[in-house]
Amino acid sequence: MDQKKEEPLWEVFIRSRQGLEHKHAGSLHAADAQMAIENARDVYTRRMEGVSIWVVESKYIHATNPDEAESFFEPANDKIYRHPTFYDLPDELKYM
Amino acid sequence: MDSKPTNIDKSYLADYTLHLADSSLIMGHRLSEWTGHGPMIEQDIAISNIALDLIGQARNFYQYAAEIINLENTEKKITEDDLAYLRDTFEFKNFLITELPNGDWAQTIGKIFFFSTWQFYFYQKLIYSSDKQLSAIADKSLKEVTYHVKWSSDWVMRLGDGTDESRKRLVTAIEYLWPYTGEMFVPAEFESNNEDQVNVDVSSIKKDWHDKVSCVSAEATLALPTNTWMQSGGKKGIHTEHLGYILAEMQYLQRTYPGLEW
Amino acid sequence: MGPQQLLEKFNARIEQDIRIEPKDWMPDDYRKTLIRQISQHAHSEIVGMLPEANWITRAPSLKRKAILLAKVQDEAGHGLYLYCAAETLNISRETMIEQLLSGQAKYSSIFNYPTISWADMGAIGWLVDGAAIMNQVPLCRASYGPYARGMVRICKEESFHQRQGYEILLTLCRGSKEQKAMAQDALNRWWWPSLMMFGPNDDQSPHTAQSMKWKIKRFSNDELRQKFVDICKQQADILGITIPDPDLKWNDERGHYDFGEINWGEFWNVVNGNGPCNKERLAAKIKAHEDGAWVREAALVFAAKQKKKNSDKEVKLETV
Q1: pLDDT per position in chain C (320 positions), as tens?
Q2: Residue A76, pLDDT score
Q3: 3-state DSSP of A8-67
Q4: What is the Cα–Cα distance from C158 to C147, expressed in whole angstroms?
Q5: Would A73 be classed as within a structural domain?
Q6: Contact A28/C at CB under 8 A
Q7: CB distance B178 to B170 below 8 Å
Q8: What is the rounded CA–CA span in Å between residue C261 and residue C208?
Q9: Cα B74 to chain center, whole Å?
């Protein structure tokens, strides 16, 4: 990122209603956390999209490296025995 | 509006409701001038939200005022737009502070901070009005205003305790605005009679308002002006020169093409 | 992985309609094209606020005032979503704004036309937003993830914009003689610039082919323009006003409306800075940016002071 003196970038996570998880909604600029929360309220919940907001300065997010995606995620592919449909059980069996 | 003596309370109620409508409308109108011109996009959006809230409040009050006036008015029913677009400056009852120019960001923040803090304490009392409709509008508006107070307080602190320039600008703004805060606590004729518990005794919220404003200012490392001389006239229809220009702009289409649907 | 392998992997993803995400490897030109297109799009939203904001204080009813204000505010939001999408490509918002204010970056030329009557609010909603939506809906499937996601949000929010514009014109067309004349005048002035919004003809459009190959664009300029004309003709008939094009007529063979030649001389003139309002629009954005400089600085300084106060507090607590 080119370095300019500007309000840092924040990632915004919104819980759309009670019972659901916070989900990434987008980003914005703000000078501090308080301003980031207020900006998130004004930018991302104008249409009743949320009941709770999280913000985190983008630079604090650590991510997997896409170059390592294969070694990270593909080994899960063949563990099909982790999924319930792997098991062949009689149709008469109930409550399982 | 001619009021017959038997109906004096209704006329007071209409004027009272119009006063609340006018203040919200003129404040919202002024803030909407920022749309597209804010210091950063995020703040452009924030201030437009406040403007929208205020215009929404104004509409609720105007619609209710129209209802009250139409009880007496059998010929032609008037609407919210007749009240906003076809009255002249001397009929507008908004606080003077709402019609003052936006000036720079500091002056606008000062305006929102003083006015929304007043609204905050005012609506808290208006909720208990014996008038069900006013009470309902107050209840809805209070939620909006609570946020406006928080948002503007945060900005007062940021500017007061930010750079030398921001502090200087905020001090100048507060000195300019201060004399316009007095009339918010002096009852007008239409709110002097409160036997039926309809209106709020505005003198009773002065202390709360002052405490809150002092507290935020102190956090912003600012001292409030000590002069006590205050401007007045807004509620009586005696305005600054600014209101005429606002109405000329706002009402121009309705005045140029009377009686049409838009 | 070597550069050739990376490129092959990238191309395979595009081929299979797998989205490209910010940290994925991408060809430099793909990145540059996206930055150019997304930032141009963001600038258009931001500059596009001005011709409409112009009428917020003069809107003829409280309802219209609230709608227009909400709509212009939405445009600020859309600009913001797009700037953020572009920032994932390693360019800062500040840099993009500098490019806009210095005149180096372009924005949609339509916003260099003046809004001189209330009917223009109707025409912009109906035609300008209509054309924008036609361009934007396919972008919801653009190959770059953040752009596509931004566009999904924007398209959702825009759905009321066009309708409110059409409703303004409908009210005018059903109103007095003067109101209907106002609507016709607005259509006369906005029709051709709206057609220009789709960009040069396909054979004159330098970026189209590559953008389509990369699945940033899904339809060509001329395809979208034709679709727009076909739809608008019927909508103008419902309003009872006339599209200012004597050559506009149904072509049975093609199954489309034929329409007249666009004045490309005018188009390039406006693109190159000679439109009626180019200077005013930029001047307004420069003024807002310069007037806001001390505000942004104050917020940063305050944030730094608070941070220091908090860390001093922590140090004190530890030493207690």
Answers
A1: 788 999 999 999 999 999 999 999 999 999 999 999 999 999 999 999 999 999 999 999 999 999 999 999 999 999 999 999 999 999 999 999 999 999 999 999 999 999 999 999 999 999 999 999 999 999 999 999 999 999 999 999 888 999 999 999 999 999 999 999 999 999 999 999 999 999 999 998 878 888 889 998 889 999 999 999 999 999 999 999 999 999 999 999 999 999 999 999 999 999 999 999 999 999 999 999 999 999 999 999 999 999 999 888 877 777 65
A2: 83
A3: CEEEEEEECCCCCCEEEEEEEECCCHHHHHHHHHHHHCCCCCCCEEEEEEHHHCCCCCHH
A4: 16
A5: yes
A6: yes
A7: no
A8: 21
A9: 30
Report yes or no: C158 and C81 within 8 Å, Cβ to Cβ: no
**Domain count along chain A:** 1
Coil, strand or helix at B161? coil
H or E element in which residue C94 lies: helix C93-101
Interface with chain A: mutation pick from B42, B112, B157, highest number of A CBs within 10 Å: B42
Contact B46/A42, CB-based, under 8 Å? yes
Give residue A59's domain range. Answer: 2-82
Alpha helices in C125-220 (DSSP H): 129-139, 145-173, 177-196, 208-213
Distance between B73 CA and the closest CA of chain C, angstroms: 22
Q: Is residue A93 part of a domain?
A: no
Lookup result for tokens 């258009």: C44
- Asked if A51 is an interface residue toward chain B (Cβ–Cβ < 8 A), one would say no
**Can you tell me the distance from the alpha carbon of A1 to that of B114, in angstroms, rounded to the nearest whole number?**
40
How remote is the C-alpha of C272 from its chain's centroid? 18
Beta bridge mates, A10: A28, A57
Using an 8 Å CB-CB cutoff, list chain A residues near B43: 39
Angle, to 10 degrees, between the axis of helix C177-196 and the axis of helix C221-239? 170
CA atoms within 13 A on the CB side of A41: 17
Q: What's A36's domain CATH number?
A: 3.10.20.520
Alpha-carbon span C247 to C213, nearest angstrom: 34
Give me the half-sphere count of Cα atoms (radius 13 Å) on the Cβ side of residue C260.
11
Q: Identify from A4, A12, A14 which residue to disrupt to test chain C contact, counting C C-beta atoms within 10 A and taking the largest count.
A: A4
Residues in chain C with CB shorter than 8 Å from the CB of B253 are: 58, 60, 118
Note whether A6 contacts C94, CB cutoff 8 Å. Answer: yes
For residues C242 and B46, what is the distance between their CA atoms, to the nearest angstrom? 40
Task: Give the whole-angstrom CA distance, residue B225 versus residue B205.
Answer: 19
Q: Which CATH number fits domain B10-256: 1.10.10.350, 3.40.1000.70, 3.40.190.10, 1.20.1260.10?
A: 1.20.1260.10
pLDDT value at B6 more than 70: no
What value does the CA radius of gyration of chain A take, rounded to a whole number of Å? Answer: 21
ipTM above 0.85, yes or no: yes
Does the residue A89 lie in any domain? no
* CA–CA distance, B3 with B5 (Å, rounded to integer): 6
Asked whether the beta carbons of B153 and A40 are under 8 A apart, the reply is no
Q: Among B157, B165, B172, which Cα is nearest to B225's?
A: B172
Length of chain C in residues, anyone? 320
Tokens 């112009």 locate to: C54
The per-residue b/e assignment along C24-53, b for 16 or more CB within 10 angstroms, e otherwise, is bebeeebeebbbebbbbbbbbbbbbbbbbb
Per-residue pLDDT of A25-62, as tens digits, reads: 999 999 999 999 999 999 999 998 999 999 999 999 99
Confidence tier at A4 by pLDDT (50, 70, 90): low
